């Protein structure tokens, strides 16, 4: 009978985890993060609601594994490239130079920690808590899991303000996790704090060994099929570092977090990350969040007036700890931007749950107070993204032209330059100095920036790295490949190189550089003319060709094609969403960042592109 009850409870939790995102989608509650909705559903079926779930070994084990995997994915979310910053500092709409994102983020987090420490001592003096350091960690933590999707949805990830918010959240995640481990070690009084160095030393050693192991060619053949060596390696790393963490007396979640950070540093295949996300957020992590809600008894919290009073006070403290340091952004940004940034940084979730769980285990806080901290974290995760979207000034963008830089003037680049000159593009040609008579002819038709030669030093004297797209087509493919690598390292989003050599092509593709080959293009075109003459007619027809439009306008989010307000000479041919290719029909919903392939007259398509990419 006990075994039957165990399976029944597990079935209820799994069903709730499965149905929660469906319910959110059905009732258009996409503003609520799924993990928060899972906690709320757990409240309904758990001790605070119908009490349908009996916690047992199965659920405790799966929930613990979910917590470990959540901390692993939190470490994996850290993009260490963000710490390198960017050499390019553009101008803001108000004319000021953009701030140095890394320096400003460090200043803001230092301020957050200091203000949190002061506020924590006030809570101790007022008699709400007994340990100021744990309270400091709880107030200063920031949820990457809420900040990242909110910035992506607002299309702010590549802006200076978006990078500052992201970096503050990343630094907060790293620092608070490490300090939490140190706190637990000191609190348990075993004098083994120095043993944490063994964990980090093991992490460094594993990183260098993994880097060498990763380059072994035979592993590529083992990455697919029934072997999946990459996935096996990741799980081995997680369990190894979790085991070392527990051996040295640290929390197992620190080992999991460190494993995630190491995998992020190793720049894994995006496909592997997708598999890990699918496994974590599709199975283990939902069980963990549902069980958080199941075990949380909010009626007990409401039975203690002191805890009820602590909820609004803690919310105010979270807001003050972020708004005060963030005010430094007033040097560059307006009030709305500053306040909205502070509000978004107020969001907390995973690490607060970790701190509350650990604090309860080592006896620093009571179970009721731990539940109150989790409840406050849920409240911030629901409301801060909503308030951020309302406050942040999403100014109407004027038609921003895409900057195209052509390196090399020849029969390939000059005709394309002329076609792109009118419309949504701002092309510029970079070429070596010409004879005076030839220069007078070309300058009357083309905008050409003179170079001494096609070298890195010559390009450094220009603003070519500020272009959105760089096309490199000099007469030497080795030069094209070398310049392509240089510009990609400088942070140019898209670099396109003309090469014919398969060896060079493979190397460039590994570094996310696009290539075009005249020989391959000619062969492909000839075959297409023979096999599909009408398709080629569409591709080459100047009046009704195929066009790609990137959907960035939020007002079209989740709008079906049947509801689409535009009519005219345009047809939706295909929608690319991530790795998916969707054949559109009347009930197909549009999502932000979809890439729409359309065909129609050039004038109408440009009008549509302006609305979908740049409209408010």
Spatial gap, N to C terminus: 60 Å
Give the overall form. Answer: globular
Number of alpha- plus pi-helical segments: 24
Radius of gyration: 28 Å
User: How are the strands of the largest sheet arranged?
Assistant: 3-2-1-4-5-6
- Determine the structural class based on helices, strands and strand pairing: alpha/beta
- Helix percent band: 55-70%
Structure summary, number of beta strands: 10
**% residues in beta strands:** 5-15%
Describe the biggest sheet? Answer: 6 strands, parallel
Detail the poorly predicted runs: 435-441
Mean pLDDT: 82
Core attributes:
six-stranded parallel β-sheet, alpha/beta, four-stranded antiparallel β-sheet, 10 strands
How would you describe this structure to a colleague?
With 616 residues, the protein is α/β, with parallel strands linked by helices. 59% of the residues lie in helices and 8% in strands. It contains 24 helices and ten strands. The chain has helices spanning 2-26, 34-45, 57-76, 101-125, 132-140, 144-153, 160-187, 196-214, 229-247, 252-265, 270-295, 298-302, 305-326, 335-345, 350-361, 367-391, 413-421, 436-443, 456-460, 477-489, 502-510, 518-531, 533-540, 602-614; strands at residues 402-407, 425-432, 448-451, 469-472, 494-498, 514-516, 546-550, 570-577, 580-582, 595-600. A six-stranded parallel β-sheet has the order 3-2-1-4-5-6, with helices on both faces. The chain has a four-stranded antiparallel β-sheet with strand order 7-10-8-9, with helices on one face. Strand 4, helix 20 and strand 5 (494-498) form a beta-alpha-beta unit. Helix 3 packs across helix 11.
């Amino acid at each position: 009978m006990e075994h039957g009850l165990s399976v029944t409870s597990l079935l209820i939790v799994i069903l709730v985890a499965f149905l929660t995102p469906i319910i959110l989608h059905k009732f258009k509650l996409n503003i609520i993060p799924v993990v928060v909705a899972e906690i709320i559903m757990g409240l309904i079926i758990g001790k605070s609601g119908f009490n349908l779930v009996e916690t047992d070994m199965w659920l405790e084990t799966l929930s613990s594994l979910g917590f470990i995997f959540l901390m692993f994915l939190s470490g994996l979310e850290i993009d260490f490239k963000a710490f390198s910053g960017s050499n390019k500092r553009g101008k803001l709409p108000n004319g000021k130079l953009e701030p140095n994102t890394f320096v400003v983020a460090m200043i803001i987090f230092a301020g957050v920690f200091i203000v949190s420490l002061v506020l924590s001592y006030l809570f101790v003096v007022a008699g709400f808590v007994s340990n100021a350091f744990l309270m400091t960690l709880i107030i200063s933590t920031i949820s990457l899991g809420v900040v990242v999707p909110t910035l992506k949805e607002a299309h702010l990830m590549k802006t200076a303000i978006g990078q500052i918010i992201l970096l503050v959240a990343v630094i907060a995640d790293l620092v608070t996790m490490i300090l939490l481990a140190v706190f637990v070690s000191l609190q348990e009084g075993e004098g083994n704090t120095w043993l944490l160095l063994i964990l980090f030393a093991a992490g460094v050693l594993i990183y260098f060994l993994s880097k060498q192991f990763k380059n072994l060619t035979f592993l590529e053949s083992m990455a697919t099929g029934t072997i999946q060596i990459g996935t096996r390696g990741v799980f081995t790393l997680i369990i190894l570092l979790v085991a070392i963490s527990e051996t040295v007396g640290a929390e197992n979640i620190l080992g999991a977090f460190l494993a995630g950070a190491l995998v992020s540093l190793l720049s894994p295949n995006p496909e592997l990350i997708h598999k890990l996300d699918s496994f974590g957020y599709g199975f283990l992590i939902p069980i963990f969040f549902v069980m958080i809600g199941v075990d949380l008894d909010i009626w007990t919290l409401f039975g203690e007036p002191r805890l009820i009073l602590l909820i609004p006070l803690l919310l105010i403290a979270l807001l003050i700890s972020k708004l005060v340091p963030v005010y430094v952004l007033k040097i560059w940004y307006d009030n709305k931007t500053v306040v909205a940034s502070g509000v978004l940084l107020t969001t907390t979730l995973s690490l607060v749950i970790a701190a509350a769980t650990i604090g309860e285990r080592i006896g620093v806080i009571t179970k009721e107070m731990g539940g109150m901290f989790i409840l406050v974290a849920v409240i911030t995760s629901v409301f801060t993204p909503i308030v951020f979207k309302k406050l942040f000034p999403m100014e109407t963008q004027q038609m921003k032209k895409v900057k195209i830089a052509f390196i090399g003037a020849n029969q390939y680049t000059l005709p394309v330059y002329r076609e792109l000159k009118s419309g949504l593009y701002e092309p510029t040609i970079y070429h070596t100095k010409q004879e005076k008579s030839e220069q007078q002819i070309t300058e009357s038709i083309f905008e050409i920036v003179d170079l001494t030669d096609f070298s890195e030093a010559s390009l450094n004297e220009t603003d070519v790295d500020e272009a959105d797209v760089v096309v490199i087509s000099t007469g030497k493919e080795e030069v094209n490949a070398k310049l392509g690598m240089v510009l990609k390292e400088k942070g140019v989003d898209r670099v396109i190189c003309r090469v014919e050599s398969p060896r060079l092509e493979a190397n460039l593709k590994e570094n996310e550089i696009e290539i075009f080959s005249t020989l391959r293009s000619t062969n492909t075109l000839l075959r297409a003319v023979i096999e599909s003459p009408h398709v080629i007619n569409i591709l080459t027809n100047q009046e009704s060709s195929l066009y790609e439009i990137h959907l960035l306008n939020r007002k079209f989010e989740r709008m079906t094609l049947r509801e689409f307000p535009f009519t005219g000479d345009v047809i939706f041919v295909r929608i690319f969403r991530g790795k998916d290719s969707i054949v559109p029909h009347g009930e197909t919903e549009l999502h932000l960042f979809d890439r729409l392939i359309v065909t129609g007259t050039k004038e109408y398509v440009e009008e549509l592109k302006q609305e979908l990419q740049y409209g408010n």
